[in-house]
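hiii so my PI (J.) wants the whole complex modelled not just the main chain, which honestly fair. so below is everything: two entries, each one labled with what it is. i double checked the lines twice but i was tired so who knows lol
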Amino acid sequence: MNNNKKYSVYFTVLTALCILFFVLDILMGSVSIAASELFSPSNELNYNILYNIRLPKTITAVLTGAGLAVCGLQMQTLFRNPLAGPFVLGISSGASLGVAILTLAFSGSIATLGIGGKISFIIAAAVGAGVALLLVITLSKNISNDVTVLIIGLMVSHLASAIEGVLQYMSSAESLQVFVLWGMGNFSNVVWDDLFYFIPIILVGTVITFFFSKQLNILLWGDNYAKSMGINIKQTRLYIIMITALIAGTITAFCGPIAFLGVAVPHLARSLFKTSDHKILIPATLLIGIALAIVCDIITQLPGHNTVMPINAITSLIGAPIVIWAVWKKNKYS
Amino acid sequence: MALSIHNLSIGYSQQKIIAKELNLSVSPGELVCLIGPNGTGKSTLLKTIAGLLSPLAGEIKINDKNILLFTATERAKQLAVVFTQKIQAENLDVYSAIATGRNPYTGLLGTLRKDDVEIIQRTIDITGLKEFENKFVDKLSDGEQQKVMIGRAIAQDCPIILLDEPTAHLDTVNKIEITLLLKKIAKEQNKSIIISTHDLSLALQIADKIWLMNKNRIAENTPTSIVNTTEFNEAFSGKNFSFDKNSFAFKII
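here's the output for the full assembly
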């Protein structure tokens, strides 16, 4: 079929772009390293910079972009709302709250907990994310209005942030510092030991999502139609919430809340591929999410500056206009 | 009987029973029109038959098996539904929309097999959607969109199809076309089709059987007999208008 040819061209180009950006991101930074040193660094310092600092950071960008984009797609389908996404609907705040409770409970000593600490970090964030999403979905039951659902999401998000604020007020100075730094969002805190958990969770999460593409395609028709076509709505919804909470929660645990990637990327995928089929949209959002996250990371360290810009500022600068465009396009004629 | 209903009570809770002691039946190849004033519970009845609402009492049987005993997938192979709500999916083309109806038959990833593709193609031909096959559903006219919705239900290949006001919002020509299409499907494919409608004249001309819903009850009869019943007069006449049995049209007195 004609479409399949088009899709394979797009997928090839996107994959090539991802590889190109990946290499560029590793080569860029405050210390300039020649491309020829990529596979054979001239000294130990450069080796460390390339393989122990920049490579984990770029891999983190890849995982974050892929994971958040796939979560955003699932949520936009689940809520049938173009503005749904992990950041907008309170998932990121829920994850933050989970982490805040954990961090503040252990008075900032989480860093010293080692491996057990990392796992409890992930669990806290995933549980927080899942609870927030469940709350939004329960409160927005029987509401078909896009904006109302969104307001509920924003309020749940604010509620989580407020509880966080109260907790911070009661916490010690050092745990506050740990938490505030984490809350700014960062790709560079992740080290190889973290990737040991990070990579398999995102990998498994996105693969499971792909196996839900049939259900997601039918969820686009709304609950009544989906039920009449033999889909177990409650069960499917719960599975999707669990997957998105795990993916978005893990990302938030490692990188802090990252804005706009999740909500913006699915729109780019839909308008490029012109399809509603999740078997195409899932890999498409995955690749576009990876490319966009690496580009954002590259921008944070543009040459000429020794300091790194906050990643959230860049993802918002790029993501917000995309969302505005998507909403404008959808409502222009209605 | 393809579908039979025994002492059924419908509604959203025991405190709010909308209709009760309903006894109805539909045979294969039969086209039933469900008529009645607004708010009498036509949609509630269709939703209950479709399994989206639980019966408050009594039972609904498909081929003598209670619908509550079917799994979701089994039921989706027996009964297809066309709802009133529009679908809002972006970039959904007509072919894919109709292919969605194959869901109960496809595997884990929803890959279409040869016989699925044949059924989809046949459905596109029957509904006259060939020229729109690759168009996006949200770019079509209301009448064409409704054909897509009906096409999806046909592709689901069930002995029973329920349609909740399939001709609302359509102009007269589209209304007649859609209704005739449904009649044709009922006869040619020997399917039981139940339509709820407010178009009395069309319903009486096309239906094999009328279900008249009014005041917690349903009267079941042929179109020619139902117009002579007191239930019919009660539902469709007022102080200064009445339904003329000969011309099948309302007359203002």
